[in-house]
Amino acid sequence: MTSHPAPTATALQQAVAQLDAEMIDTLSAFVAARSPSGAEQPAADFLEAQLQNLGLDCERIVLDSERIRNSPMFSCPCDPDGGRHNLLARHLPTQGGGRSVLFNGHLDVVPTGPEPLWSAPPFQPHVKDDWLYGRGAGDMKGGIICALMAFKALRLLGLQPAGVVGFNAVLDEENTGNGTLATVHALQNTLARARLSEFDAVIIPEPFAETLMAAQVGVSWLFVTLTGRPAHVAYMGQGLNPIEAAHELMADLKLLEAEWNAPENRHPAFRDVAHPINFNLGRIEGGEWNSSVPCTCTLGLRCSYYPGTEPDDAVALISQRLRAKAQALNPALQLEISTRGHRSPGCVYDLEHPAMQALAQAHRTVNGREAERLACTATTDGRHFSLMTDIPVTNYGPLARDIHGIDEAVSLASMRRVTLTLAHYLVDWCGVEPIQA
């Protein structure tokens, strides 16, 4: 769609190339703005300044758990709200008539792990061999900058989208997804002002290597506390060791994981995925003294399940399995299971929708081949749009490596391709109009 002559592919490519140094510098500064979950403000402030410099209307949407608590998509928070806020910026066309798109991305990053293991400090980004290193470079500040640079590329050509373009920077994706939920909730409660209806598509530039996401699993976090019986190690037989029991429980959960991964039990969207369901033991804490049989042990689990499975049902099945194994090990072993953090259903995306086909076409234009379709074994904020609205959505972002690991990095070559793809998408989906003085 365009009511004004579209720029040539060569002109778009040259505009993106002209922004290359700015792309690297902007992403470096963005990564340096530390934004661990619960303390995202430096990154929000940085991005707000970038968007305001483009003349975009910026709105802060406060994360208020009480307002969204009754939503079926709500997850029990891991951090206090503390006045934290999302950032929603909107480009409003002068002439209008074009279709609209919302770019949704999260500001929070996961912990770094032991910083001495990094080749350079994780919040002092650096470039090596056309990769930019730093915590959050891939997941997902690089993708956010791709969307921003795609918009800027049109500006360099004296053009702007003929439809509304939104940039929604959210909190708490890594813990709960409540940030995007807060934005969707706020927009849905102001439909009279037609704000949500202004968005005809949503693209989330998560780092999935230039693939189009077709589906994603659901994810829930469980916290399991085992209480045994402490004793002096000289009288070990009188004690009941919950740490040793925890290993037995985890081994049994792995058998359940294998059952859910069996080909006959897979969701159709995950038929060709080698190992779609993962139960991860992410944390373990227990014991007080090397020479004492410990009293308690707490496990932090991340468990996934297929689209169509309700989170509460999955948690109930997992909890039942844990309790049965604990009872079989020793009836005196006490088990307490709680949930907070992710409580996320899976979903399937409609990639045949014209909005998603336009993105696929933009990818073909830039890369000369079809984009691969990804059934994702992780969760993303796309579920909120897929399950709560009728707006078509997918994830499409750059190649990254070692996300959530040591020496996280994003491919700058991939960022250039993604930026160019998104620039083509803005032209083809939104249309263009001249910038009015």
How many extended strands? 21
The major pleated sheet works out as: 6 strands, mixed
Name given to the CATH homologous superfamily of the largest domain:
Zn peptidases
The parts where pLDDT drops under 50 for at least 5 residues are 191-195
Globally, the shape reads elongated
Strand portion: 15-25%
Number of helices: 11
Rounded to the nearest angstrom, the distance between the terminal CA atoms is 23 Å
> What fold name stands as the CATH topology of the largest domain?
Aminopeptidase
Radius of gyration, rounded? 23 Å
In percent, how helical is the residue content? 25-40%
* Overall pLDDT score: 95
* CATH C-level name of the largest domain: Alpha Beta
In which order are the strands of the major sheet placed? 1-2-7-3-8-18
Total individual domains? 2
Content-based structural category: alpha+beta
Query: Which architecture of the largest domain would the CATH scheme give at its second level?
Result: 3-Layer(aba) Sandwich
How would you describe this protein?
The chain has 437 residues and is α+β, with helices and mostly antiparallel strands. It has two domains: 9-215 and 347-434, 3-Layer(aba) Sandwich (Aminopeptidase); 218-344, Alpha-Beta Plaits (2-Layer Sandwich), CATH 3.30.70. The chain has helices at residues 9-18, 20-32, 41-53, 65-68, 137-156, 178-188, 242-261, 311-329, 354-367, 382-388, 412-430; strands at 57-62, 85-91, 101-106, 126-128, 131-133, 159-161, 165-170, 202-204, 212-216, 218-227, 231-232, 279-286, 292-293, 296-305, 334-344, 347-348, 373-376, 393-395, 400-401, 409-411, 432-434. It has a six-stranded mixed beta sheet, sandwiched between helices. A four-stranded antiparallel beta sheet has the order 4-5-20-19. The two termini are 23 Å apart. The model is unreliable at 191-195 (pLDDT under 50).
